[in-house]
Amino acid sequence: xxxxxxxxxxxxxxxxxxxxxxxxxxxxxxxxxxxxxxxxxxxxxxxxxxxxxxxxxxxxxxxxxxxxxxxxxxxxxxxxxxxxxxxxxxxxxxxxxxxxxxxxxxxxxxxxxxxxxxxxxxxxxxxxxxxxxxxxxxxxxxxxxxxxxxxxxxxxxxxxxxxxxxxxxxxxxxxxxxxxxxxxxxxxxxxxxxxxxxxxxxxxxxxxxxxxxxxxxxxxxxxxxxxxxxxxxxxxxxxxxxxxxxxxxxxxxxxxxxxxxxxxxxxxxxxxxxxxxxxxxxxxxxxx
Length: 288
Known about the structure:
This protein is of the alpha/beta class.
């Protein structure tokens, strides 16, 4: 078991389950509705806790009733929220999700009215026990300060960065971390129709990095600092139920394996297996 800090976003997810995804201007009835904790970093933190690690979530929440849903879920999953900053005013970030029973696909409308986590807050976090610190790639000016601070105060920790959404200036942070975990959407935005093309391009600029990129049902890829390119097929469950958060769980699977010293090729397979198991459950469940 390792001590892992996960820095980023937590949301309230309101999920409407429909038989098939509606066409524009359709009116359809949801067969079920779920209100649950979500958010990239929060999902990764919960997945790591399920996989047996001592995990703390680091981020902001609004001082309003919907925050209780998130905090109660963290508590039930054994995720430490000591370092959560509660912000007066604003609203817990909320994702309105349409989940198709036919395909397991999810479509998200996200609303945010909450200040981002600041480097000044992170400076008060005790990082001395952390074996791994994972950062969601957002609020980049503050994130750069956090990465440098963490590297100074805890040089032995492995630092990883999630590059899910293409944000201007995100690439400037690659040199401050050890591991970068990419999304398919990030690759496509940057003109890479294949994950391996993205990984080769980033490796050429940052050969010291360990890289990985999930590609959904088409598997996942990784690149070692030596330049070796690795692939694993996806591990689909008997029935795809819910893909919401699968990428976050893939990231958790990579961190889980690598922090235990697992070779990269095996870590990639493990991450794909864990993400596949997640897709057979609603929410973040059944990972072990």
